[in-house]
From TrEMBL:
One of its GO terms (biological process) is regulation of DNA-templated transcription. It comes from Bradyrhizobium erythrophlei. CDD domains: RHH_NikR_HicB-like (cd22231). InterPro entries: Arc_rbn_hlx_hlx, RHH_8, Ribbon_hlx_hlx. It comes from the Bacteria. Pfam families: RHH_8. This is Transcriptional regulator, contains Arc/MetJ-type RHH (Ribbon-helix-helix) DNA-binding domain.
């Protein structure tokens, strides 16, 4: 079997979720010009690099406040995956889940809208929620 044949037999067992979320911002022309000048002078590789660095600097500057607020609100920090097995276990235990995430909350693709409604009492995500459109619709009245 040559390399081309081997490559055609490779498959992803589980698709990797994206590590970033795309956002859109509006900047005034002068601010954008300043960003472009910093890029042109080699301080940053591109506009995105400048914006990410500025955001990280602000988050670092306010790290203590963010840490206190995260703890006070009981937020899970980072990536939190909810599988069908997780929700079925909660259902069997007669428990309702309260999803509180700062980062990315992901509800597995094989979770039905009915299972989500039966097991998730509330959803509060600061960042991004990845779920099927049906699950998002089923939880829309429980999402803050």
């Amino acid at each position: 079997m040559d390399g081309n044949q081997m490559a055609s037999h490779v498959q992803d067992l589980r698709p990797k979720p994206p590590e970033t979320e795309k956002i859109t911002i509006n900047l005034g022309y002068v601010d954008l010009g300043h960003v472009d000048l910093m890029v042109k002078d080699g301080f940053y590789s591109n506009r995105t690099d400048f914006i990410r660095t500025a955001i990280r600097n602000q988050l670092e500057r306010h790290a203590d406040v963010v840490k206190q607020s995260t703890a006070r609100k009981g937020l899970d920090l980072g990536l939190r995956n909810y599988t069908r097995a997780d929700l079925e276990a909660a259902q069997e235990a007669g428990e309702m889940l309260h999803i509180n995430v700062l980062g990315l909350a992901s509800i597995a693709q094989d979770v039905s809208a009915d299972l989500a409604r039966a097991t998730i009492a509330s959803v509060s995500v600061l960042g991004a929620l990845h779920a099927t459109p049906a699950v998002k619709a089923a939880l829309s009245d429980r999402t803050r």
